[in-house]
Design brief:
Chain lengths: 214, 214
């Protein structure tokens, strides 16, 4: 005896496929998975790109702590298990957005390699683009807009990535963006360049995006 | 002492707002929340509409058991608590899609009024459109493509909505679609008519969609 649906769920082809959606667009849906320390620049970069995508008519969406931790994942805390579940759900939601034809930009520290690799495994080849937003921790600490690094060092925040919890760098990210030594414009252009050269954005769209002010 | 992020999450305006996205489109993002018994026609209707939206250039996405139960909610079963959490997460994901500018179509039995009302409360006025896909259970049983009603009656599936678990009809749905007495074309047209008259679709888009074969 099983619960409703155990035998009642089956895969069938949806009426509109991701291929239909892509055929209608001059871009290819994917997830740009930004990973890096707090204050490394993930959100800033994701939002600058999303703004550009909007301006050139590319559907995109940023998933970040603001819209995830207050909503879908508000039942989760910061224990290792909860962090893992947090990233799992974000991965699954990203997959839905990619299936819907959007370019998704995720801006989460996502410190564990295993969690990121598990998300990657949800996607078809080429749909998951891991972007390591790399910045020395000293620079992140100096930026530290919310004083969190200072509080973490003072022991007022526990399990703080880079201070009292590990950050595992990606081993083979598709892109590394060094925000301490590159200007915002260079960071932005590096991502667009990747998307253009690898066929995620049509050449005309990539060119247009690069001409926009950041 | 708190976990990372407890003090580290705060709301800020995203760079591209839902208003920016809507301004760029001749339609208004919303969720069409189809609720009704198994085999009442929720998925069929949602997919027919999504196909039409795609044809007229309206971004939409169907959330249903296929893409949710195998992914985001694969950790959930069919207990009352799990069903509640299932609907909560679907509501939160719908909210992200609406924020991203899409018309979301959800096709879940969602039998409990309280759960649906909780989802409604996540949205701004007018963003949540509850569509009761109403069909007598005898008709659903006759359709019963997967033999689930028969198995439920034989006691082989427990907690089956309409047989051994309740279905609470919406009290004030925005729309009621009677799939036993209306043709597929009429059901489809009724939803489009609602969207056109209430400003979700520009009149030209609504007209185009109505001319498409279902």
């Amino acid at each position: 005896m099983s619960g409703q649906g155990d035998k009642n769920i089956y895969w069938h082809a949806p009426e509109v496929t991701v291929h239909d959606r892509r055929d209608a667009n001059d871009y290819r849906s994917c997830v740009l998975w930004f990973t890096g320390l707090s204050a490394s620049g993930k959100s800033t970069l994701a939002n600058a790109l999303s703004k550009a995508f909007h301006a050139i008519g590319v559907n995109s969406y940023v998933l970040d702590g603001d819209n995830i931790r207050h909503g879908l994942n508000k039942d989760l805390g910061f224990s290792p298990d909860d962090r893992k579940e947090n990233i799992r759900r974000i991965g699954e939601v990203s997959k839905l957005f990619v299936d819907a034809g959007l370019i998704v930009l995720t801006a989460f520290i996502s410190p564990y390699r295993e969690d990121r690799d598990r998300v990657r495994s949800l996607f078809r080849d080429g749909e998951f683009i891991e972007v390591h937003v790399k910045c020395p921790i000293e620079v992140c600490e100096r930026r530290d807009p919310k004083g969190a690094y200072q509080r973490a060092k003072a022991g007022q925040i526990r399990d703080y990535t880079g201070i009292s919890a590990p950050y595992e760098e990606p081993l083979r990210p598709e892109l590394v963006i060094k925000t301490a030594t590159m200007s915002k414009q260079e960071c932005y252009a590096a991502v667009l360049d990747y998307l253009g050269k690898n066929g995620y954005l049509g050449s005309e769209l990539a060119r247009k995006a690069l001409l926009l002010p950041v």
